[in-house]
Amino acid sequence: MKACIITLPSGKRTCPDVSSKRLSLLILSFLLLSTAFFCLYNYSFSPWRLDMELVYRRSSLPSSRAFGLVNRCDMFSGDWVPQVEGPYYTNETKCQIDDRQNCIKFGRPDTEFMKWRWKPSQCEVPPFNATLFLELVRGKSLAFIGDSLARNQMQSLVCLLASAADPVDNSYTADPRFRQWFYAEYNFTLAIFWSVHLVKSEDADTNIYPVTSQTLYLDEVDEIWANHIEKFNYVIISAGQWFLRPLVYYRKGKLIGCYACNKRKITGLSMYYGYQMAFRTSFTTLLNLEKFKGTTFLRTISPQHYENGGWNTGGTCVRTRPIAKDEIRFEEYFLKLYSTQVAELIAADGKGKKRGLKFRILDPTDMMAERADGHPNHYGHGPGANFTNADCVHWCLPGPIDTWNEILLQVLQSEYNATSLMGKSTPTNQTNS
Ligand SMILES: *[C@@H]1O[C@H](CO)[C@@H](O)[C@H](O)[C@H]1NC(C)=O
Ligand SMILES: *[C@@H]1O[C@H](CO)[C@@H](O)[C@H](O)[C@H]1NC(C)=O
Ligand SMILES: *[C@@H]1O[C@H](CO)[C@@H](O)[C@H](O)[C@H]1NC(C)=O
Ligand SMILES: *[C@@H]1O[C@H](CO)[C@@H](O)[C@H](O)[C@H]1NC(C)=O
Ligand SMILES: *[C@@H]1O[C@H](CO)[C@@H](O)[C@H](O)[C@H]1NC(C)=O
Ligand SMILES: *[C@@H]1O[C@H](CO)[C@@H](O)[C@H](O)[C@H]1NC(C)=O
User: Fold this and answer.
1) 201, 217 in Cβ contact below 8 A?
2) Is the CB of 386 under 6 A from ligand 4?
3) Residues 74, 98, 366, 391: which is the catalytic one?
4) Are 281 and 225 in contact (CB under 8 A)?
5) Spatial contact of 339 and 54, defined as CB atoms under 8 Å apart
6) Residue 65 has pLDDT above 90, yes or no
7) Which ligand has the nearest atom to the CA of 232?
8) Residues sharing a CB contact under 8 Å with residue 253, sequence separation 6 or more, in sequence order
9) Could you tell me which of 44, 48, 51, 50 has the C-alpha nearest to residue 267?
10) Which of 55, 128, 213, 262 is the most exposed place for a label (fewest CB within 10 A)?
């Protein structure tokens, strides 16, 4: 089957195990879709062209083997299965749930969306154990960097941990986009840095560019996180929907082009280019920070589920059950963003090995594609917001995003297990074979 031959960044050729159970309908539909994309779009995205072969996604990327495995189990490929027990926490739990994702508080009537458990094909994800999590991170620190979806996961984690410990807010600023929680009993710091483009960015001049345009300085990291990150043991980095706006690109302080800005005299560059450079600059920054010894996780892009319209044209997400794998259709732009970020992670990991720095993946993209039922839709309420648009981007809390942290716990546990066996088999200082 010729379509399964892919080229890895290393230049090696490989082929997904077609007989494997992991070759689900989902993947099959990717193959079909991406083959179609390959024919249609192969050469149409200059000057920067994504290697479309990467669109075969995680099942065929090195990431599934090198980065997504816990005890040889691919945690991110599996199925949602019903479970009787309710969620780990409620809107009454002592933790902060953003009103916009507090679906139960704002009257979401159905509860089935909180009653699914993720079952990887080859193993189990044990229930979240807050005490165990905190013991694994004792004396350590973890930072999220990203947009409101990073905050969504951070708030899920604080609520999941609430059964074991009550943190103090020791944020260094009053700006709620930069929270820092301290778990005194465990000497554990959990922080979030708001950085939607990861690199330095600002609103573009609307006298010149369309409203909502953003200027990105592609080779300048956003210091708002970079100046604080050196001491962190774990860094979870993500980016997504903010790259869909018109973007104006600077490099070495000079305008080099723009995306969707409708300026004939300015070189057109794709959003993928900006996305690629944002991750490259961020990973390079982490690689170059002298005192940084942490593990970096890329949390891959989170799918949205507008149906019967777009986010601003009346689209909604009214489902109350996950959708079937064979119903899932990713849009081409989404697959390209996904492939772009994973390719940058792989490149960073290659460089990180020389320095003993780990780059890993938290890859909920596929699993969340099934969870069209997990969004606030209209049951989220910003303070004073007059919300006419449905939210099919963020995730209700509690809800399926809690699974990201259940898996994070497994990843931390397996890392802990590996380091406690250190001395014989841990390949931390070996060069790439
Ligand atoms: C929790 O949600 C219920 C509605 O299901 C609401 O009546 C209650 O006030 C909420 N509690 C808090 C603390 O928000
Ligand atoms: C949770 O983890 C702690 C610490 O490892 C352990 O003592 C406890 O038994 C675990 N709880 C459950 C329900 O497994
Ligand atoms: C708490 O953890 C930090 C590192 O995160 C460490 O420098 C400090 O010594 C620890 N404090 C105690 C009391 O263990
Ligand atoms: C809320 O939105 C509706 C419909 O767009 C509009 O008619 C109304 O004036 C808005 N109210 C406020 C307080 O902004
Ligand atoms: C870590 O090691 C413990 C004890 O050997 C084992 O029970 C657990 O399954 C391991 N977990 C992971 C994720 O490797
Ligand atoms: C790799 O690590 C082991 C154990 O920490 C050490 O004995 C060995 O010398 C290291 N090898 C290299 C090439 O640094």
Assistant:
1) yes
2) yes
3) 391
4) no
5) yes
6) no
7) 3
8) 217
9) 48
10) 262
Out of 77, 141, 148, 302, the active site residue is 148
Interacting residues of 155 by C-beta distance below 8 A, sequence separation 6+: 95, 96, 97, 98, 101, 397
Coil/strand/helix, residue 127: coil
Ligand 2 atom closest to the Cα of residue 129 is 1
Residue 249 and residue 257 in contact, taking contact as beta carbons nearer than 8 Å = yes
* 1 contacts 335 by C-beta, under 8 angstroms: no
Q: Which residue type, as a one-letter code, is found at position 92?
A: E
Inter-residue contact 342 to 420 (CB < 8 Å)? no
Structure tokens at 295: 């593990």
CA distance 341 to 68: 15
Is the model's pLDDT at 316 over the cut of 70?
yes
Question: Greater confidence, 125 or 8?
Answer: 125
Q: Residue 276 and residue 218: Cα distance in Å, rounded?
A: 9
CB 104 near ligand 1, within 6 Å: yes
Note the pLDDT of residue 389.
87
Residue 386 has a pLDDT of 64
pLDDT at res. 69: 65
Tens digits of residue pLDDT in 141-182: 999 999 999 999 999 999 999 999 999 999 999 999 999 999
At 371, give phi and psi (nearest 5°): -100, 50
- Amino acid 267 reads T
Amino acid at 258: C
Structure tokens at 194: 């708001």
Q: Is the CB of 105 under 6 A from ligand 1?
A: yes
CA 109 to chain CA centroid, Å, is 28
What is the distance in A from the centroid of ligand 6 to the CA of 423?
A: 8
386, 387, 388, 389: residue to mutate for ligand 4 pocket, most atoms within 8 A of CB: 386
